[in-house]
Amino acid sequence: MPDTQNDAGLAMETVQFSLPVGEISLRASAQLPVGRTTLTQLLPILQNLENVIVDKVGEEARSAGKRISCRAGCGACCRQMAPVSLFEAEALSAWMGSLPEVRRTELEQRFQRALSALRDAGVMEKLLAGDWALDEERTTQLAIDYFHAGVACPFLEEESCSIHPMRPLSCREYLVTSPPELCRDPSAHEVSGVRLPMKLSRALYAFGQEMTEDARGWIPLVFLVAWGRRGATPGEYVAGSGREVLRAFLERAATVSASAND
Ligand code: SF4
After folding, report:
1. Is the beta carbon of 171 within 6 A of some atom in ligand 1?
2. Residue 98's closest CA among 187, 6, 4, 228?
3. Is the CB of residue 57 below 6 angstroms from any atom belonging to ligand 1?
4. Structure confidence at residue 42 (pLDDT)
5. What is the pLDDT of residue 185?
6. For the ranges 8-12, 116-120, 245-249, 255-259, which has the lowest average pLDDT?
7. Which of 62, 104, 235, 244 is the most buried (most CB within 10 A)?
8. N- to C-terminal Cα separation, the chain
9. Which pLDDT band, with edges at 50, 70 and 90, does 1 fall under?
10. How far apart are CA 210 and CA 217, in angstroms?
11. Cα→Cα distances 56→52, 96, 129, 145, Å
12. How far out from the chain centre does Cα 187 lie?
């Protein structure tokens, strides 16, 4: 029996679940639709789950006498090539489509300027040759070239993320304990990244790899607007009741995490 209805009149149920994260089993509950749901529609639940993992890691860092340096107003890392899963790209594209025209146009122009700047810096050609993802050395070099191009994420405003509640999982997972100024050039300075016991983004990429047979299963965020014009709906790839989709995601997250630790 459904527990309740949400504001849109959809029947919802409370689902208890657990996820092995490092040494512990994370227990949580979520309100999920009883009816047909796509993986993309489940993103707010996954974002909350990622926040819990990140908070836990932050607490552990504090207990070890360290401090997470990442703060609003420091957007140094937002000049890196941010990966976005196809499901997050679908959600962000839909959100951009719902914006008032003036705001949407402003954002689309920023994406266009970012693409032009990457082209002028000679990075676009390498980015478009998608086979770089097959080679770790080329991937690292591309990430360095991208960062050195100094092209800010189009969602960065006054050095803060303007889509903070919806930002991709990959952005949530990037945490450092070294001084923020070192992030201005991570290829030249030793930045102390925080190791997460599990990165939920990897499960989304694994679904993306499976459905597109692409080596990455994600797109660089700077391609969001161009990708959105295709009108793709990857979330349909993993659909069912909310409970079924969450179970499929959690199983994939546990598998990906286990193989990452092999
Ligand atoms: S989405 Fe937000 S956090 Fe991620 S790179 Fe862009 S501005 Fe930074």
Report:
1. yes
2. 228
3. no
4. 96
5. 76
6. 255-259
7. 235
8. 41
9. low
10. 8
11. 6, 31, 38, 33
12. 22
Q: How confident is the model over 137-185, as pLDDT tens digits?
A: 888 899 999 999 999 999 999 999 999 999 999 999 988 888 878 877 7
**216 in ligand 1 pocket by Cβ < 6 Å?**
no
166 close to ligand 1 (CB < 6 Angstrom) = no
**In angstroms, rounded to a whole number, what is the distance separating the alpha carbons of residues 83 and 199?**
13
Nearest CA to ligand 1 atom 8: 78
Any atom of ligand 1 within 6 Å of the Cβ of 61: no
Q: Is 107 in the pocket of ligand 1 (CB under 6 A)?
A: no
User: Which residue CA neighbors atom 2 of ligand 1 most closely?
Assistant: 161
| Distance between Cα 84 and ligand 1 center (Å) | 10
Q: Which residue has the higher pLDDT, 254 or 194?
A: 254
Please indicate whether residue 224, judged by its CB atom, sits closer than 6 Å to ligand 1.
no
Task: Give residue-wise pLDDT tens across range 52-82.
Answer: 999 888 888 888 888 888 877 778 889 999 9
Is the beta carbon of 256 within 6 A of some atom in ligand 1? Answer: no
Q: Please give the average per-residue pLDDT across 14-40, as a whole number.
A: 92
CA distances from 79 to 36, 39, 83, 114, 236 (A): 38, 28, 12, 10, 31
Q: Whose CA is nearest to atom 4 of ligand 1?
A: 171
98-105 mean pLDDT: 98
Ligand 1 atom closest to residue 156's alpha carbon, by position in its atom list: 7
Q: Give the Å distance between the CA of 165 and the centre of ligand 1.
A: 11
Residue ranges covered by each domain of the chain: 4-260
User: What is the 8-class DSSP label of residue 27?
Assistant: E
d(CA 16, CA 122): 49
Average of per-residue pLDDT values in the chain: 90
Question: Which atom of ligand 1 is the closest one to the Cα of 167?
Answer: 1
